[in-house]
Every structure is written in structure tokens, then in C-alpha cells.
Amino acid sequence: MMAVRPERLAITLRRATMPDLDEIVAIERASFSDPPWSRDSFLALVDSPRAYFTVACASPTEHVIGYVVAWFVADEAEIANLAVAPDRRGRGVGSRLLDAALVAARLAGARVVHLEVRDSNAAARALYGSRGFLAVGRRRRYYRDPVEDALLLRRDIEA
């Protein structure tokens, strides 16, 4: 018997705003244990010109169902945080957020994008691999809750 894939969601992407923070923090806490970013960490990014901070909203309710944070410095970019609400995973939200961040990185002049991911996070590793990210290193025992290695991933961006 073949598994049925969930239907892709109708979403919109836009810059994160202060009213989004409660939903972002709830997704962060449901997604990460080591320790999750604080509300103040996200608040500092809302108006920062140095941060790419984008949310995915479910249409037509406009509730935040995912977000991505990235930084662009010189010709490099880093995907610092990407998460999707647990009940919306596997429906293309993370792909859309990552693709938008990669386009923004290219437009900002980045030639390479870096990120790190838990070794055991198969879904995230599959997403990043599908976008051309390759493992270039490992940080042993980087994560603390639970203790686990981080894989360092890199993707070159075409001019």
C-alpha cells in the first residue's frame, strides 16, 4: 500500500513582525530543545536590517506556521534557524522558506551558504540535501539536550 503525501499548503511569505512573535516562539519551543531561542532573541531581529527574518503564513487565516532566520555577511550567508509548526510539516512549508532564503542570499551577493543540523534530523537533512547542501564538517557533542553531533552543511550559490 502506498502512503499518501499530505497536500501542499497555500501559504504566503512575508517579513516577520512583532505581532508574529508569540506564534514564532511557540513553534520554536515545539521544534527545538537545545535550548530554544528566546522571545528577546527573535525580537532583536524583527527590525534588524542585517537579518533575513521571514515567516510562512497559512492562507487565509494568516497564522504563522513557520519561519526562517538568515544572515548575509560579505559573500557568505548562514541559515541560523528554520522551523515549521509540527502539524504543518511535510507539506512544503520548509522548502518554500529555505528556497526564499537562498534567493535572498544570492541577491545579497552571497556565494556560499552555511548551516548546521542535528545529525539525527533526517527530515531536515533530506530537505537540505535536496537543495544541494553537502556535509563539510562535524561538531562533536554540539547539542546538549540530548547530546548529539551537529553536521556542518554548505552550499555554493551560482552567480
Biggest β-sheet: strands ordered side by side in the sheet: 1-2-3-4-5-7-6
Would you identify the CATH H-level superfamily of the domain at 11-115?
A: Gcn5-related N-acetyltransferase (GNAT)
Tell me the distance between the termini: 44 Å
Fraction of residues in helices? 25-40%
Strand tally: 7
Tell me about the largest β-sheet. 7 strands, mixed
CATH architecture of the domain at 11-115: 3-Layer(aba) Sandwich
Stretches where pLDDT falls below 50 for ≥5 residues?
A: none
The secondary structure category is alpha+beta
- Rg over CA atoms: 15 Å
Compressed to H and E, one letter per element, the order equals: EHHEEEHEHEE
Tell me the number of helical segments per DSSP (H or I, 4 or more residues long): 4
Q: Give the CATH class of the domain at 11-115.
A: Alpha Beta
CATH topology of the domain at 11-115: Aminopeptidase
Structure description:
- The protein has a domain at 11-115: Aminopeptidase, CATH 3.40.630.30.
- Helices cover 27% and strands 38% of the residues.
- The chain is built from 4 helices and 7 strands, in the order E-H-H-E-E-E-H-E-H-E-E.
- The chain has a 7-stranded mixed β-sheet.
- It is globular and about 40 Å long.
- The termini are far apart.
Structure in a nutshell:
This protein is an alpha+beta fold and 159 residues long. 27% of the residues lie in helices and 38% in strands. It has helices at residues 21-31, 39-46, 93-107, 122-130; strands spanning 11-15, 51-58, 63-73, 76-84, 112-118, 134-144, 147-156.
